[in-house]
What does this fold into?
Amino acid sequence: EPEVTQTPSHQVTQMGQEVILRCVPISNHLYFYWYRQILGQKVEFLVSFYNNEISEKSEIFDDQFSVERPDGSNFTLKIRSTKLEDSAMYFCASSSDSRSNQPQHFGDGTRLSIL
Amino acid sequence: EDQVTQSPEALRLQEGESSSLNCSYTVSGLRGLFWYRQDPGKGPEFLFTLYSAGEEKEKERLKATLTKKESFLHITAPKPEDSATYLCAVFNQAGTALIFGKGTTLSVSS
It folds into this structure.
Protein backbone atom coordinates (compact mmCIF):
# COMPACT_ATOMS: atom_id res chain seq x y z
CA GLU A 1 0.00 0.00 0.00
CA PRO A 2 1.39 3.46 -0.90
CA GLU A 3 2.65 5.43 2.04
CA VAL A 4 4.06 8.79 3.03
CA THR A 5 7.75 8.59 3.96
CA GLN A 6 9.61 11.08 6.12
CA THR A 7 13.31 11.59 6.76
CA PRO A 8 15.11 11.74 9.05
CA SER A 9 13.22 9.85 11.73
CA HIS A 10 15.07 11.83 14.42
CA GLN A 11 16.87 15.16 14.10
CA VAL A 12 18.89 16.76 16.87
CA THR A 13 19.82 20.42 16.29
CA GLN A 14 21.34 23.25 18.27
CA MET A 15 19.06 26.20 19.01
CA GLY A 16 19.35 28.86 16.34
CA GLN A 17 20.33 26.43 13.61
CA GLU A 18 18.34 25.81 10.45
CA VAL A 19 16.68 22.44 9.93
CA ILE A 20 14.98 20.88 6.91
CA LEU A 21 12.52 18.05 7.31
CA ARG A 22 11.79 15.97 4.25
CA CYS A 23 8.73 14.13 3.06
CA VAL A 24 7.83 12.03 0.05
CA PRO A 25 4.03 12.11 -0.30
CA ILE A 26 1.98 9.38 -1.94
CA SER A 27 2.74 9.60 -5.65
CA ASN A 28 -0.67 10.55 -7.11
CA HIS A 29 -1.57 12.95 -4.30
CA LEU A 30 -1.83 16.66 -4.98
CA TYR A 31 -2.43 18.17 -1.54
CA PHE A 32 0.29 18.26 1.10
CA TYR A 33 0.28 19.17 4.76
CA TRP A 34 2.54 19.56 7.77
CA TYR A 35 1.35 18.99 11.32
CA ARG A 36 3.25 18.88 14.58
CA GLN A 37 2.67 17.16 17.91
CA ILE A 38 4.40 18.40 21.02
CA LEU A 39 4.87 15.59 23.52
CA GLY A 40 1.61 14.86 25.33
CA GLN A 41 -0.39 17.40 23.30
CA LYS A 42 -2.74 17.42 20.33
CA VAL A 43 -1.69 17.07 16.72
CA GLU A 44 -1.69 20.67 15.42
CA PHE A 45 -2.03 21.92 11.84
CA LEU A 46 0.85 23.97 10.46
CA VAL A 47 0.33 24.44 6.73
CA SER A 48 -1.38 23.09 3.64
CA PHE A 49 0.12 23.26 0.15
CA TYR A 50 -1.36 22.80 -3.31
CA ASN A 51 -0.23 23.67 -6.81
CA ASN A 52 3.08 25.06 -5.50
CA GLU A 53 1.37 27.49 -3.18
CA ILE A 54 0.44 27.63 0.48
CA SER A 55 -3.33 27.14 0.77
CA GLU A 56 -3.60 27.88 4.45
CA LYS A 57 -1.31 28.28 7.42
CA SER A 58 -1.86 28.39 11.14
CA GLU A 59 -0.65 30.95 13.66
CA ILE A 60 2.21 28.58 14.50
CA PHE A 61 3.55 28.84 10.96
CA ASP A 62 5.36 32.17 11.32
CA ASP A 63 8.20 33.69 9.28
CA GLN A 64 10.66 31.14 10.65
CA PHE A 65 8.86 28.38 8.74
CA SER A 66 8.76 27.73 5.02
CA VAL A 67 7.68 24.88 2.77
CA GLU A 68 8.83 23.88 -0.66
CA ARG A 69 8.23 21.23 -3.28
CA PRO A 70 11.70 21.27 -4.88
CA ASP A 71 10.95 18.49 -7.37
CA GLY A 72 8.15 16.14 -8.37
CA SER A 73 8.42 13.92 -5.34
CA ASN A 74 9.71 15.76 -2.28
CA PHE A 75 7.97 18.17 0.06
CA THR A 76 10.07 19.95 2.67
CA LEU A 77 9.55 21.97 5.83
CA LYS A 78 12.33 24.39 6.78
CA ILE A 79 12.72 26.07 10.14
CA ARG A 80 15.21 28.92 9.74
CA SER A 81 16.32 29.57 13.30
CA THR A 82 15.14 26.87 15.64
CA LYS A 83 13.90 27.54 19.18
CA LEU A 84 13.61 25.19 22.12
CA GLU A 85 9.82 25.23 21.74
CA ASP A 86 10.13 23.83 18.20
CA SER A 87 10.94 20.44 19.74
CA ALA A 88 8.11 18.15 18.62
CA MET A 89 7.11 15.37 16.25
CA TYR A 90 6.51 16.78 12.78
CA PHE A 91 4.13 14.85 10.55
CA CYS A 92 3.74 15.20 6.82
CA ALA A 93 0.42 14.21 5.24
CA SER A 94 -0.98 14.05 1.75
CA SER A 95 -4.36 13.59 0.11
CA SER A 96 -5.56 13.10 -3.44
CA ASP A 97 -8.18 15.85 -3.02
CA SER A 98 -8.94 18.56 -0.52
CA ARG A 99 -12.56 17.48 -0.24
CA SER A 100 -13.54 15.70 2.90
CA ASN A 101 -14.19 12.37 1.21
CA GLN A 102 -10.48 11.99 0.60
CA PRO A 103 -8.66 11.39 3.89
CA GLN A 104 -5.22 12.71 4.69
CA HIS A 105 -2.57 10.00 4.99
CA PHE A 106 0.26 10.59 7.42
CA GLY A 107 3.90 9.61 7.55
CA ASP A 108 5.55 8.31 10.70
CA GLY A 109 7.03 11.67 11.52
CA THR A 110 10.37 13.28 12.30
CA ARG A 111 11.19 13.75 15.95
CA LEU A 112 12.91 17.14 16.20
CA SER A 113 14.93 17.78 19.34
CA ILE A 114 16.34 21.28 19.87
CA LEU A 115 19.22 21.56 22.35
CA GLU B 1 -13.97 28.31 17.67
CA ASP B 2 -13.78 24.85 16.12
CA GLN B 3 -13.03 22.25 18.78
CA VAL B 4 -12.76 18.51 19.25
CA THR B 5 -12.94 16.89 22.69
CA GLN B 6 -12.35 13.20 23.29
CA SER B 7 -13.20 11.11 26.33
CA PRO B 8 -12.03 9.27 28.24
CA GLU B 9 -8.35 10.22 28.04
CA ALA B 10 -7.36 6.65 28.86
CA LEU B 11 -9.26 3.38 28.90
CA ARG B 12 -8.13 -0.01 30.17
CA LEU B 13 -10.06 -3.07 29.01
CA GLN B 14 -9.76 -6.79 29.41
CA GLU B 15 -9.61 -8.77 26.21
CA GLY B 16 -13.18 -9.31 25.01
CA GLU B 17 -14.60 -6.42 27.08
CA SER B 18 -16.47 -4.14 24.66
CA SER B 19 -16.61 -0.36 25.15
CA SER B 20 -17.00 2.98 23.37
CA LEU B 21 -14.85 6.06 22.90
CA ASN B 22 -16.45 9.47 22.56
CA CYS B 23 -15.61 12.44 20.36
CA SER B 24 -17.64 15.63 20.67
CA TYR B 25 -17.10 18.46 18.22
CA THR B 26 -18.09 22.03 17.57
CA VAL B 27 -17.67 23.20 13.99
CA SER B 28 -19.96 25.13 11.71
CA GLY B 29 -21.03 22.94 8.85
CA LEU B 30 -19.35 19.58 9.39
CA ARG B 31 -17.33 18.68 6.30
CA GLY B 32 -16.16 15.34 7.59
CA LEU B 33 -15.19 13.62 10.84
CA PHE B 34 -12.21 11.29 10.83
CA TRP B 35 -10.98 8.55 13.13
CA TYR B 36 -7.31 7.68 13.19
CA ARG B 37 -5.27 5.14 15.13
CA GLN B 38 -1.83 6.14 16.39
CA ASP B 39 0.72 3.64 17.69
CA PRO B 40 3.63 4.88 19.84
CA GLY B 41 6.27 6.60 17.73
CA LYS B 42 4.16 6.37 14.58
CA GLY B 43 1.96 8.69 12.56
CA PRO B 44 -1.83 8.64 12.60
CA GLU B 45 -3.27 5.78 10.54
CA PHE B 46 -6.60 6.49 8.85
CA LEU B 47 -9.56 4.40 9.96
CA PHE B 48 -12.89 6.03 9.00
CA THR B 49 -14.55 9.11 7.54
CA LEU B 50 -18.11 10.05 8.53
CA TYR B 51 -20.10 12.86 6.91
CA SER B 52 -23.64 13.01 8.18
CA ALA B 53 -25.66 12.21 11.29
CA GLY B 54 -26.78 8.59 11.38
CA GLU B 55 -23.87 7.34 9.31
CA GLU B 56 -21.99 4.25 10.48
CA LYS B 57 -18.75 2.63 9.29
CA GLU B 58 -17.25 -0.70 10.37
CA LYS B 59 -13.85 -2.30 10.17
CA GLU B 60 -13.13 -5.57 11.96
CA ARG B 61 -13.87 -4.97 15.67
CA LEU B 62 -14.38 -1.21 15.24
CA LYS B 63 -17.57 0.64 14.41
CA ALA B 64 -17.81 4.42 14.14
CA THR B 65 -21.10 6.31 14.42
CA LEU B 66 -21.99 9.97 14.05
CA THR B 67 -24.63 12.29 15.51
CA LYS B 68 -25.00 16.06 15.09
CA LYS B 69 -22.76 16.75 18.08
CA GLU B 70 -20.56 13.71 18.59
CA SER B 71 -19.11 10.50 17.26
CA PHE B 72 -18.54 7.19 18.95
CA LEU B 73 -15.96 4.54 18.22
CA HIS B 74 -17.31 1.23 19.45
CA ILE B 75 -14.83 -1.55 20.07
CA THR B 76 -16.35 -5.02 20.19
CA ALA B 77 -14.45 -7.86 21.88
CA PRO B 78 -11.11 -6.04 21.74
CA LYS B 79 -7.77 -7.83 21.50
CA PRO B 80 -4.38 -6.70 22.84
CA GLU B 81 -3.39 -5.63 19.32
CA ASP B 82 -6.14 -2.99 19.45
CA SER B 83 -4.09 -1.14 22.06
CA ALA B 84 -3.27 2.30 20.64
CA THR B 85 -4.27 5.94 20.85
CA TYR B 86 -7.42 6.68 18.88
CA LEU B 87 -7.64 10.19 17.46
CA CYS B 88 -10.74 12.02 16.27
CA ALA B 89 -10.46 14.95 13.86
CA VAL B 90 -12.75 17.27 11.92
CA PHE B 91 -12.12 19.57 9.00
CA ASN B 92 -12.00 23.27 9.83
CA GLN B 93 -14.65 25.51 8.28
CA ALA B 94 -12.53 26.13 5.20
CA GLY B 95 -11.99 22.40 4.74
CA THR B 96 -8.23 22.89 4.47
CA ALA B 97 -6.97 21.60 7.80
CA LEU B 98 -7.77 18.87 10.29
CA ILE B 99 -8.51 19.80 13.91
CA PHE B 100 -7.58 16.94 16.22
CA GLY B 101 -8.70 15.94 19.68
CA LYS B 102 -6.15 14.83 22.28
CA GLY B 103 -7.05 11.21 21.74
CA THR B 104 -8.06 8.25 23.87
CA THR B 105 -5.29 5.83 24.81
CA LEU B 106 -6.70 2.32 24.85
CA SER B 107 -4.92 -0.54 26.62
CA VAL B 108 -6.27 -4.05 26.18
CA SER B 109 -4.84 -6.76 28.39
CA SER B 110 -5.15 -10.50 27.89
In short: Chain A has a mean pLDDT of 93. DSSP finds no helices and eleven strands in chain A. The interface with chain B takes residues 4, 6, 33, 35, 41-45, 48, 55-56, 58, 91, 93, 98-101, 103-109 of chain A (CB under 8 Å).
